[in-house]
Amino acid sequence: MNTDIREHHESAIRFVDVCKSFDTRSKRHRVLEHASFSIPKGKTTVIAGGSGQGKSVILKLILGLLRPDSGQVLVGNQDVGTMRYKALQEVRMLFGVLFQGGALFDSLTVFENIALPLRERTKLTDDEIYTKVAATLEQLELAGHEDKYPAQLSGGMKKRVGLARALQLDPKIVLFDEPTTGLDPVMTKEIYELFTTTQQHLGYTAVIVSHDIPQIFTLADQIILVNKGELDVFADATQISCSSKPEIREFARMVMGQ
């Protein structure tokens, strides 16, 4: 099997020569400059970089919420950048998304928040929904909290509920957008452990956008650093300080102490 075919087979997502720019008042700001990389199936990829460098833009391109100026964003063998709405909605069924703030509905209980995707996107009966949600509550140590409202939950509990909801449609890929924002170090560590055990148990592909460096690197099977439109891909954190690029080595020294 040649390299291109093997990479296609083993990748959940591929960016092929992707460019993306936005207009500002003074000029056109290039966020991604001919970006090419692969996200391997069943693994955890961490996307890191400074504020405004395009980390969340990558997630939006993957979901088809933004379209590239040029290049391809492939989920499996499908180019989400050229899809019509109906086809794109079908592809989005492959994804679970844990948003930065959890994006829970304040007027719904924990149970109702978690059940929402099942009610909106499936034809399961109420009994089937109850059974599935109850199993997730148990798995994520939320049993006993199902009748609470988001305002009654700690920050860590809200993240658990957000993850529970993201997993309801049995996604092949889960996207995490700054998942530990607002959490203290102890709770952050607990949430990281939850992410690791859940991903290993269910086997989905995880893509985590985070500013929590270097702690977030402990979860990574692959690290993508985004800086001024360019991307650098590393198999693990130890490779970062050995980069041939001076700016990457400086990043490792300043942020990672390497």
UniProtKB/TrEMBL annotation:
Under Pfam families, the record lists:
ABC_tran
Question: Locate the ABC transporter domain: which residues?
Answer: 13-253
The yes or no answer to whether the keyword ATP-binding is present is: yes
Alphabetized UniProt keyword annotations = ATP-binding, Nucleotide-binding, Transport
Q: Which InterPro entries match?
A: AAA+_ATPase, ABC_transporter-like_ATP-bd, ABC_transporter-like_CS, P-loop_NTPase
Annotated GO molecular function terms are:
ATP binding; ATP hydrolysis activity
SMART domains for this protein: AAA (SM00382)
Q: Which PANTHER family does the UniProt entry name for this protein?
A: INTERMEMBRANE PHOSPHOLIPID TRANSPORT SYSTEM ATP-BINDING PROTEIN MLAF, PROTEIN TRIGALACTOSYLDIACYLGLYCEROL 3, CHLOROPLASTIC
Q: What is this protein called?
A: ATP-binding cassette domain-containing protein
| Organism placement in taxonomy | Bacteria, Pseudomonadati, Thermodesulfobacteriota, Desulfobulbia, Desulfobulbales
